[in-house]
Structures are given as C-alpha cells and as structure tokens.
Amino acid sequence: MRPYEQKREMAKALEPIRDKILCIIPGNHCRRSSKEADADPTYDIAAKLDLEDKYRESIAFSRIGLGKRTSGKIRNCKPHVYYLACMHGAGGGSLPGAGVNRNDRYLQALDGVDILITAHGHKPYAHRGSKIILDVQNRIVTARPTLHMMAGSWLGYVGYPIEKQMVPVAMPGANKLLLSGSKFRFEAVI
Predict the structure, then answer these.
(1) Do both 72 and 144 map to the same domain?
(2) Residues 68-83, buried b or exposed e (16+ Cβ, 10 A)?
(3) Count: domains in the chain
(4) 37: buried, middle or exposed (CB in 10 Å: 19+, 13-18, 0-12)?
(5) Who contacts 27 (Cβ-Cβ below 8 Å, separation ≥6)?
(6) Tens digit of pLDDT per residue, the chain (190 long)?
(7) Residues 6 or more apart whose Cβ sits within 8 Å of residue 53
(8) Cα–Cα distance for residue pair 112/150, rounded to 1 Å
(9) Residues 167, 135 within the same domain
C-alpha cells in the first residue's frame, strides 16, 4: 500500500477502539521516515482519529485509577492507582534476554512507574520485578511490584524481516494488561 493508504487503513482499524486509546507513539521506522520527509505518519493517524492530544514523540506516562465508587465517593474499597510508561523501545539484540535486561534497567530508572510497556523487539514477554520504596514520612520500607511487557509484532514474516535475516517471532497479536480494582494487583496475559 502507498503511505496515505496505510494511514487511512490504520485509522479505520483503530476507530472502533479510539475511546480506549491512552497514547499513540511512533516506532523507529516511522521516526526514520519522518526525518526524511518532515512528516510523521503516526501523528497523521492520531489526527485522523482526532487524538492529537494522545500523541507523544518518545514516551507517554499514564495514571489509571480503579476502585468502586458510590455517589462519587469510594466505599468499601480503597482506590488503586497504577502508573504506566509506554514507549516504542530500542535495541535489545537478537536474543530475548537482551531486551528483558534493557527494559528492566530502564524501568528501575523510572521512579514511580509500576508498568513499562515497549514494543521494539517484536518478541512478546512479561517480566515481574519490584522496587524498594522508602516512605520517609511514615518511616516504613515496602516493596512495590513492577512489570515490564514487550508487545508482540503484528507483521507477517515477509519483506523486511527476511531482508534483514531476522528469525520469525511469535504469531501476531496483542498482549493484555489486567489491572485489579479491588486490590493493587496487575498481570500480563500473552
């Protein structure tokens, strides 16, 4: 397809879920083409969906709060807030461990972030960890769980991966992130 057709088709595919989109971030191929043509196809797709405010060039941070509400007040349930960072990611090498190590190191540098979601490596995985939290005001030390996920590829094994002599990756599809509203708990489904 020509670039304008690709953007039109992507916008059409995302339209049914546009109200659920938290962020839109370009990948390395989009950034490469945007430097050459001074145009970002990912931004164009966001504009077609009227979601320019969800577009970020490199990283997006989201706060998601869950919990039962009755008449605007929390009742019988403590609200749970999750902090996410989403980015395309980079590098990682040809072995899955390299991507896991890179993302784990980066997540540790993101203070306050519970979940890091990346995509660059096209190898879907989820890795649980934790951070030690020092609450100076209340004089307590706790461990807070963390998770980093890499989204899978949506591309078939044709063209680019063959030209670059890449090995096939898992079947196309999306990972799922499940967030609990009744207790602070999250998990990935691949």
Answers:
(1) yes
(2) eeeeeeeeeeeebebe
(3) 2
(4) exposed
(5) 42, 88, 119, 120
(6) 888 899 999 999 999 999 999 999 998 777 665 556 667 899 999 999 999 999 999 999 999 998 876 666 555 566 889 999 999 988 766 677 888 899 999 999 999 999 999 988 778 889 999 999 999 999 999 999 999 998 877 777 778 778 878 777 776 677 899 999 888 999 999 8
(7) none
(8) 19
(9) yes
CA-nearest of 63, 59, 61 to 25 is 59
Residue at token pair 């989820």: 126
What number of residues does the chain have? Answer: 190
Query: Is residue 29 domain-shared with residue 82, that is, in the same domain?
Result: no
Instruction: Print the domain residue range for 65.
Output: 58-189
Task: Give how far Cα 184 sits from Cα of 26, 145, 146, Å.
Answer: 30, 9, 11
Q: Which residue, chain included where needed, has tokens 């083409």?
A: 33
Q: What's the pTM value of the predicted model, to 2 decimals? A: 0.85
Burial status of residue 190 (CB atoms within 10 A of its CB: 0-12, 13-18, 19 or more): middle
